[in-house]
Amino acid sequence: TCESVETIDRLSDVHYRHLVENYLSRDAPAIITDAMDSWPVMNTDYFWFDNITQ
């Protein structure tokens, strides 16, 4: 449960299998810090906060 979570691991360059075996299969939370780095939209003006909130 959320109440029992004291820390959330921050991961980068994580392989899918590692994520599944160590986090998803246990319903453990994790923050993937570089998950959006390869998204093409991240390098455009469309991703600005002002555009998202319109």
Describe this protein's structure:
By secondary structure, this protein is an alpha+beta fold. Helices cover 20% and strands 11% of the residues. A two-stranded parallel ribbon has the order 1-2. Strand 1, helix 1 and strand 2 (30-32) form a beta-alpha-beta unit. The longest helix is centred in the middle third of the chain and has 7 residues, at 16-22. The protein is elongated, with a radius of gyration of 15 Å. This is Cupin-like domain-containing protein.
List the helices and strands and how they pair.
Layout: E1 9-11, H1 16-22, E2 30-32, H2 49-52
Parallel strand pairs: 1-2
Rg on CA atoms, Å: 15 Å
The portion of residues forming beta strands comes to 5-15%
Q: Identify the overall geometry.
A: elongated
End-to-end CA span: 35 Å
Per DSSP, the total helix count is 2
The low-pLDDT segments are none
What portion of residues is helical?
10-25%
Q: How would a crystallographer describe the biggest sheet? A: 2 strands, parallel
* Count of distinct structural domains: 1
Overall SS class: alpha+beta
Strand order of the largest sheet: 1-2
Instruction: Summarize the helix and strand pattern as letters.
Output: EHEH
Number of separate strands: 2
Protein name: Cupin-like domain-containing protein
Give the gist of this structure.
With 54 residues, the protein is α+β, with helices and mostly antiparallel strands. The chain is built from 2 helices and 2 strands; from the N terminus they run E-H-E-H.
